[in-house]
Amino acid sequence: MTPSASNAAGSARAPLRRxxxxxLVPGLxxxxxxxxxxxxxxxxxxxxxxARGSRAAAIARQQLAATAPFAGWDAAVVRALERGVELxxxxxxxxxxxxxxxxxxxxxxxxVRLASGAEHLESAERGGVVIATLHIGHWEVLAAWxxxxxxxxxxxxxxxxxxxxxxxxRALHGVQTIPQDASARVPLEVLRRGGTLGVLCDLDxxxxxxxxxxxxxxxxxxxxxxxxxxxxxxxxxLPACCLRAPSGGFEVHVAEPLAPPTRGARSEELVQALSQxxxxxxxxxxxxxxxxxxxxxxxxxxxxxDTGRADPDRRREKGSR
Length: 321
Prior knowledge:
Layout: H1 3-13, H2 16-32, H3 37-50, H4 55-71, H5 75-100, H6 107-111, E1 112-116, H7 118-124, E2 129-133, H8 139-148, E3 153-157, H9 160-172, E4 176-179, H10 185-192, E5 196-200, E6 210-215, E7 218-223, H11 225-233, E8 237-244, E9 250-254, H12 267-287, H13 312-320
Parallel strand pairs: 1-9, 2-5, 2-8, 3-4, 3-5
Antiparallel strand pairs: 6-7, 8-9
Helix pairs in contact: 1-13, 2-9, 3-5, 4-5, 11-12
């Protein structure tokens, strides 16, 4: 079965709620992105209040509570973070809708500043780097801002209704999206021609290869993609993130680049690179915990659990949803 036929079959088998979402997401987003941000934000906040009883909100509460001993948070801090996570999710969606509105993105130059790691970003601007980022702050703003600075390349993204819509939003700002289930040759070609490749690599993504490594005090399935792509291309890994600043703007932080594991390197070298990425992500999360995506099930897959990652048909079917 070809990928396109498999995707069509997967869409036909998808539950009704997923098929409805595939139709509603682009239409609703198309309406909201035409409204000014001050008008959209109250609507999104009302939706956030309604979502407090959702499964995603329950996951966020559970994961915040489970991380509290590692982070040193008491019950009052956890309750405050629950509210902070909700408010940030509203702001994050509002800014994506702002990007979707087009207009050239001139506001990015005015509102986004490079807060740390200028020397590291300058090295990336010379070409060919894997940018390892995470679901904290405003990662879509980061991608658009980096492209506006002149970094040409692509990001690896999910499919489905929301994923396809986000790919169109990125395209408005000159950012290419490579599907997660694409051949490894596609992102490698971006790197080999000197382009920048963005990878969101902080979540439990069962359909991609991963290994369990410590993350915020517990073993978490960690995707191998950033280190594997760096090893195959010989390009460095550059951890980066874009946080909401107290002033209301955005702050980009770029950490020291990591050398790629050498070709044919032992697994210990790949594990070391992934562990360093996780450690940097931990630092950023603990600095701004309300800005991380706690509603995503980070510790879902247990060590030794079969995730079905080797089944390409399952991966394509999930992506079509």
